[in-house]
Design goal:
Number of strands: 0
Shape: elongated
Order of helices and strands: HH
Structural class: mainly alpha
Oligomer: single chain
Length: 92
């Protein structure tokens, strides 16, 4: 397995996880607040608490989902190739 395979696995997993996480956090936000999340939190008409709340919640949730997906892809790559992806190898 080569670098191209790792790039496809890592990027594909992270993108897929980001899309799913975005859908889940949007549903969670709507359930918790009773309204849709701000389409553009940078818009001055969006209140500060709402803009910051959405930025923190979505950023953290999507970031963790992407991390988990990338780690899972790296574990799969390591199991298949017998060594971790080049960018993730331990430095001694």
């Amino acid at each position: 397995m080569g670098a191209l395979v790792w790039k496809a696995l890592g990027a594909g997993g992270a993108i897929g996880a980001g899309i799913v996480a975005r859908q889940l956090i949007t549903r969670g936000w709507t359930s918790a607040t009773g309204k849709e999340p701000p389409a553009n939190p940078e818009d001055p008409q969006v209140s500060w608490p709402e803009a910051v709340g959405w930025a923190v919640a979505s950023g953290a949730f999507i970031g963790v989902a992407r991390l988990l997906a990338t780690r899972k892809a790296a574990a799969y790559y390591t199991k298949s190739a017998g060594h971790p992806p080049k960018g993730l190898q331990l430095v001694s």
